[in-house]
Write a structure and sequence with these properties.
Layout: H1 3-15, H2 23-34, H3 44-61, H4 65-73, E1 101-106, H5 110-125, E2 129-130, E3 139-144, H6 149-167, E4 177-182, H7 183-188, H8 190-195, E5 201-203, H9 211-219, E6 224-226, E7 249-253, E8 255-256, H10 267-270, E9 275-276, H11 279-291, E10 296-300, E11 308-309, E12 338-339, H12 340-350, E13 355-359, H13 368-376, E14 383-385, H14 393-399, H15 405-418, E15 423-430, H16 437-450, E16 454-459, H17 467-471, H18 478-501, E17 510-515, E18 523-527
Parallel strand pairs: 1-2, 1-3, 3-4, 4-5, 5-6, 7-10, 10-13, 14-15, 15-16
Antiparallel strand pairs: 8-9, 11-12, 17-18
Helix pairs in contact: 1-2, 11-12, 16-18
């Protein structure tokens, strides 16, 4: 019998049988037999019976349910991508970059800057080269943001520009591949591929390890995507590669995702649930950065001060979680694990000459032990980001922030009492769903009352998938949002000027980052936010 007829006969015999799940085994046996000099095919019924007996015997001697339950109880350490086998449809050498040049563009928050460094570390190990020249790039990757509609529109505009570049690509060169990475890829998924056919690769925030495979698939002319969110991916074993060799500071991601589920926020849907890196891996990264001569490290997370390392079993006892006074959590409070105060203490001990910052926190996660540590440790910057979002308790409730205006103001006073001279910054949203003029006036009054040193203010932009999208109405007209935003910005600048004038005549410790321009002798840098000066008992 012809080998193809043999294969079809085996498939037909297995299609209706109770052992269809082992059809691949019988098929492989049949194909192997057909490659021999004999032209006869094994009897399919006899072969199916043999496969069934073989399967039954292996099932009887195989692992029990308890084995799998025990294996799943402890998180398995990821193997390095260098030792993983390629998928069956790719050869190992197809996963290699073969010195193709990658151009990376980063949009959005500090987490995206860190994600860019992680993605580049993975691609570099696969044999890709980095280029800062867009014209010579073989691969262009955009690390994107979805927090507001304007952020996404920026990417759509950029893709139109890159489309022309891809069209003009010389046939003598390898085809130009374009990829969308990060939150926008996670939120829009196939919409991007359908809308922009020139996009070759999509990778969500938890899929950067898969970039070599995705690019290999794209080389065949197909679009490739991986937007699966993970419950445990933290890239703890990936050492980010600094994108600027002359950098004096670095971002260190300590946790990913967010469980707060504020009604306006897309982050839980683009970056998944909260999970934290092991403390040991964070300390190792900080030590390496210190050895490289970096002077400042910023610990990163969507809710950075809710950090909880549960990787060490001995620290998983049910220790109660302390929240800021008067604050509540939207999700079930977790217990045990090594908390943010422990991590901050350990990181600050790595190098007393290295300044430590962290962002972005949630006001609910500032227990006294964190505030006391910031006050006592000289190299932890005396600066706290305290996102308020609104000055109206009614709007804060609609946002599901877990606190009232009164509780927030009480926390501000407590922080300033615990850390004299502390610098405060905040986030505010103008024109959230149902916000009235009275609500807006209360936000203006909060800005005047607190006098922030720095602020980030935006008009509300409704995002699909959020709780607000499903349950609230975006009923504040756009022109009203913009007018309220302008008023908030004006008041913030007035009050920030008053707050910052208190530093006039004071000696400030500055982190020098370079010169202002070529040929200039003027240095540029930023103030280290009231870090204690050596040999001085006063805050600068």
């Amino acid at each position: 019998m012809h080998s193809l007829q043999c294969v079809l006969q085996v498939q037909r015999s297995l299609r209706w049988g109770p052992m269809a799940s082992v059809s691949w085994l019988s098929l492989r046996m049949c194909m192997a037999h057909s490659s021999l000099s004999s032209t006869t095919c094994p009897n399919p019924e006899r072969q199916e019976d043999g496969a069934r007996k073989d399967f039954s015997s292996r099932l009887a001697t195989g692992p029990t349910l308890q084995y799998f339950l025990r294996s799943a109880s402890a998180p398995q350490e990821k193997l390095s991508s260098e030792v993983e086998d390629p998928p069956p449809y790719l050869m190992m050498d197809e996963l290699l970059g073969r010195q193709r040049k990658v151009y990376l563009e980063t949009y959005g928050c500090q987490m995206n800057v860190n994600d860019t460094e992680i993605a580049w570390s993975i691609l570099q190990k696969s044999g890709y080269l980095r280029t800062s020249n867009l014209q010579e790039a073989d691969v262009i990757l955009l690390v994107t943001c979805s927090i507001r509609e304007k952020a996404e529109q920026t990417i759509w505009n950029r893709l139109h520009q890159l489309k022309a570049l891809k069209t003009r690509r010389l046939r003598s060169r390898v085809p130009l591949r374009i990829g969308i990475l990060g939150c926008m890829a996670e939120r829009l998924k196939e919409e991007i591929l359908n809308r922009e056919k020139m996009v070759d690769v999509l990778a969500g925030p938890d899929a950067y390890r898969d970039l070599p495979r995705l690019l290999a698939v794209a080389e065949s002319g197909q679009q490739a995507a991986n937007v699966l969110l993970s419950l445990d991916e933290t890239y703890a074993d990936v050492m980010p590669v600094q994108t600027s060799p002359s950098a004096t500071s670095a971002f260190v991601s300590i946790m990913r995702g967010c469980d707060n589920m504020c009604t306006y926020c897309i982050v839980p849907f683009t970056r998944g649930r909260e999970r934290s890196r092991p403390v040991a891996s964070i300390l190792e990264e900080v030590r390496k950065l210190s050895e490289q001569g970096l002077k400042e490290v910023t610990l990163l997370g969507q809710n950075v001060n809710s950090f909880r390392d549960s990787s060490e079993v001995q620290f998983n006892s049910a220790v109660s979680t302390n929240l800021s006074r008067g604050f509540t959590a939207n999700c079930k409070t977790k217990q045990g694990g090594l908390r943010f105060a422990h991590l901050l203490d350990q990181v600050s001990r790595v190098d007393p000459e290295m300044r430590i910052r962290f962002t972005s926190p949630h006001p609910k996660d500032f227990p006294d032990e964190v505030l006391q540590l910031i006050h006592e440790r000289d190299n932890i910057c005396k600066q706290i980001h305290l996102p308020a979002q609104s000055g109206s308790s009614r709007v804060l409730e609609a946002m599901r922030r877990g606190y009232s205006r009164e509780a927030y103001v009480a926390l501000v006073h407590h922080i300033r009492e615990s850390i004299p001279g502390v610098s405060l910054s905040s986030d505010f949203i103008a024109g959230f769903c149902g916000e009235t003029e009275e609500d807006h006036v209360q936000t203006v009054s909060l800005l005047r009352e607190v006098q922030y040193n720095m602020g980030f203010l935006f008009a509300y932009s409704m995002r699909q998938k959020t709780r607000a999208y499903h349950r609230l109405k975006d009923d504040v007209p756009e022109e009203v949002k913009l007018r309220r935003l302008e008023e908030l910005i004006t008041v913030f600048r007035e009050e920030a000027t008053k707050a910052n004038q208190t530093a006039v005549g004071c000696t400030q410790l500055v982190l020098v980052e370079g010169i202002t321009s070529a040929g200039s002798q003027t240095l540029k840098g930023h103030v280290l936010c009231r870090t204690t000066l050596k040999d001085s008992s006063a805050y600068c």
